[in-house]
Amino acid sequence: MIAQILVAAVALLHIYILVLEMFLWTKPQGLKAFGQKPDFAEASKVLAANQGLYNGFLAAGLIWGLIQPEVDFAWQIQLFFLGCVAVAGLYGAATVGRKILFIQTVPAIAAMIAVVAA
């Protein structure tokens, strides 16, 4: 149960990131979340929307893993997508900011540990 809650939390986080990047990038909430200036946000909103879409794919994969009725296959799906989230977080931490490590990678690894332990 704890593993499923953690996987769902990571999926919800990525849905939230999708909303921020695709719909709120140039709005006050998006500007604050990513520390952007309005002119840069406006110039980069198409790129941000693309990033948001990819975050949506990660969330969709995690949700797929949660609803997959075949337990062994669900386990594989969850670990694959959590691994993708962790790697994306490592890359983001290395190229954008260390904060991403704690927002994205740490929860994904915690969920992976819980899934394996379950």
Q: How many H/I helical runs?
A: 5
Strand count, sense and barrel status of the largest sheet are:
none
Distance from N terminus to C terminus (CA atoms, Å) equals 8 Å
Q: Please give the domain count.
A: 1
Helix content: over 70%
Return Rg in Å.
15 Å
DSSP strand content: under 5%
Order of helices and strands: HHHHH
The pLDDT mean sits at 96
- From the spread of the alpha carbons, the general shape counts as elongated
Low-confidence stretches are none
**Sheet/helix structural class:** mainly alpha
Count all strands and give the number.
Answer: 0
Helices, strands, pairings?
Layout lengths: L1 H21 L5 H7 L3 H30 L3 H25 L3 H19 L1
Q: Overview of this structure, please?
A:
- By secondary structure, this protein is mainly alpha-helical.
- The protein has one domain.
- Helix content is 86%, strand content 0%.
- α1 runs antiparallel to α5, α3 packs antiparallel against α4 and α4 packs antiparallel against α5.
- It starts with a helix and ends with a helix.
- The mean pLDDT is 96.
Characteristics:
118 residues; mainly alpha
Write a concise synopsis of the structure shown.
The chain has helices at 2-22, 28-34, 38-67, 71-95, 99-117. It has 118 residues and is an all-alpha fold. The chain has one domain.
